[in-house]
Design a protein that fits this description.
Elements lengths: L1 H24 L3 H15 L5 H19 L5 H27 L4 H23 L10 H5 L27 E3 L4 E3 L4 E3 L4 E3 L4 H33 L5 E3 L5 E3 L2 H11 L1 H29 L4 H7 L27 H9 L4 H7 L1
Antiparallel strand pairs: 1-2, 3-4, 5-6
Helix pairs in contact: 1-9, 2-3, 4-7, 4-9, 5-7, 7-9, 8-9
Length: about 350
Amino acid sequence: MDFLTLFLVYLCFVLLVTALLCLCSGRKESFLARNVTRASQVLSLVIPTQLQRVAHRVAHGALHRLFHTRSCLFVVLHIALQAAVFGEYTWEVFGYCWELQFHLLLLLLPYLLLAGNMGCFLLCSRANPGIITKSNHASLVKVYAYDGVMFQRGTVCPTCTMEKPARSKHCSVCGTCVHRFDHHCVWLNNCVGASNAAWFLLYLLSLTATATALAAITLSFLSHVVQLSNLLHSTYLDAQGQEHPVEIPFLVQHLFLTFPRIVFMLGFVILLTLVLGGYSAFSLYLAFTNQTTNEWCKSRRFGVSHHVSSHPPDRQVVYKNIYSKGVWRNLKEIFRPPTALERKKKT
């Protein structure tokens, strides 16, 4: 059916855009530059040289401003998407479900989750992620031990001109070194570090729960509509006048023609639930094992690299996470970051 083809294209497009935004927001500029360069090489066969140069400068400048400078663009987009989804939920889904006598607490659940999510969003985006300054540098250096592989003593940040504490990293977007750096999140317009990692985890989980609740209620509403109309036991006539039993493709098309905005919203929310669910599972894995996104990405390089400065060049380096202390203590560290005084007491 033409409708199903169009709808599948829409779902794939939303998923692709969402995945690219999530991917690009956590990757270095070289990743974006590489893909722009590859595209320009393909287009160079048909586009004049002068136009190529202009397009190259514009594309690189736009990508740099989007992902490598602090900007409220993605924050505004984040709020706009939530407003659009909840506007449709309030305008149509809530009213229809109320007429079908859905329980009031169930219908209010997405709003409660939204309130919690927005609270975590504000706390995470406005919080100091753990910026390393000259006044707190001496104490932060003592919080974590250097593992000698990923983090080595004596490494100086060329921008901040300070020795890097273990598990810290310089954020090129914010222009500061961040203690227990995880990643820079364009959706929050802030880094995720030791001081706001707990709020970020709660923000992510509450956002996933909100999308899941919206999808579940909307699906329940549509299933009620199907049951009340007895569509599954009905028949329809095709273009040749032949009678056929109602199948899933026809049912989806019928629901779209009857509730177009609700079906489009449902498709978007389901894809969002899948993407956020996967990312939430990954973030929980990092929390349980006491790793950051930065450390996890770096650890992929070890085991295949054969040279680190403190090891012989012919010896394969195997990274071992020395910061994991068990699931419960790892979670406690997320919600109550350690200090230099606490480390002294333990030693």
